[in-house]
Amino acid sequence: MEAYLELEKQIGSWAGVDNVVACSSGTAALHLALEAMLLPPGSQVIVPDLTMIACARAVTLAGLTPVFVDCRNDLLMDVSLGFSIGAHAVMVVHVYGRQCDMEQVIGLAKSNIYGNDQHELFVVEDLAEAHGVIPHPDTDAACWSFYKNKIVGGEEGGAVAFKNPEHARLARRLRSLGFNDEHDFNHYPRGHNYRMSNAHAKLIIGSLNYYPVAIQKRREVERLYEEACPVAWRQPERDVPWVYDLRIRGMSSEIQDRVVRGSNKEGITARHCFKPMTRQLEYREGIPRLVENNADRLSREVIYLPIRPGMKRIDCAQPFEIIQSVLGKCSR
User: Among 31, 55, 141, 282, which one is least packed by beta carbons within 10 Å?
Assistant: First the structure.
């Protein structure tokens, strides 16, 4: 069996899903998910404002329209704000290892109250940052990235699992330039070169087999971070320890930049939080937004630190000493 087919089988067992389609990246997985659902051109897709830009880009690539929803203090999409009337799909992202309330999402999406024709919303669940979270059984498409910085990773790769086997069948054609089973060079529908190589699949299989050990080691590192992190900076509990995020309330973008640069100068791989999609040039629609939302505030107040199996107590304490030192210099 080809390695990418074996990976599809193993992902199915690991995540409790069927109809898995391996592909070249997490972005490709999101794009395939949306295209395989055959949504009307220009359809609205609800997307978190605070997320990786690949989420919004996948919507745009599929010829659809992203509609952005603000986030809560735990960085997850604020489902209580409701969904856009007229939307056809919602993309849920489990940010930094925290799981969205999928029961609430599914309840809203399948309630038939959205859209002029009273349709249910397709649900796309992005698990790139939450490997090990089990997709909701009513999710229409569950997507993973296997980029090298993920809990399960190779150099690159992705996968999408569909509730509807017909969506999976179409996605398999779309990932391979529209080739049919006969491979007779009749390319329809228009597809993409989103195939996963066997070399990448083998790397990902090895990482997947290591997952039980990796997650245990990551939880230990997370615990060491929690012990060292000032209480005021701690963020809500994570369902899966992918990275360790912290929030410094009142921090400006300028100070955030200095904290991240100062940490990296000392060998600590600190990273900025996501920038809201509504602040990205391609999604501003040419009109500057004058009123801040929660995503704006959290984007400049949150940074995150790496979680790597094998990190020691001193590795987890040092970042906070450096951050406090940088903040002290900023206040002078």
Answer: 282
In this prediction, residue 286 carries a pLDDT of: 58
Tokens of 46: 């609800």
Give the residue with greater pLDDT, 61 vs 119.
Answer: 61
If 0-12 CB within 10 Å is exposed, 13-18 middle and 19+ buried, where does residue 272 land?
Answer: middle
Q: What number of residues does the chain have?
A: 332
Q: Which amino acid is at 169?
A: R
The residues of the chain that CATH labels 3.40.640.10 are 3-208
The SS3 of residue 6 is helix
Contact assessment for residue 273 and residue 304, using Cβ atoms and an 8 Å cutoff:
yes
pLDDT band for position 194 (50/70/90)? very high
Amino acid letter, residue 69 = V
Please name the fold of domain 211-330: Aspartate Aminotransferase, domain 1 (3.90.1150)
Task: Report the distance separating Cα 29 and Cα 201, nearest Å.
Answer: 15
**CATH number belonging to domain 3-208:** 3.40.640.10
> How do 158-162 and 20-23 pair as beta strands?
antiparallel
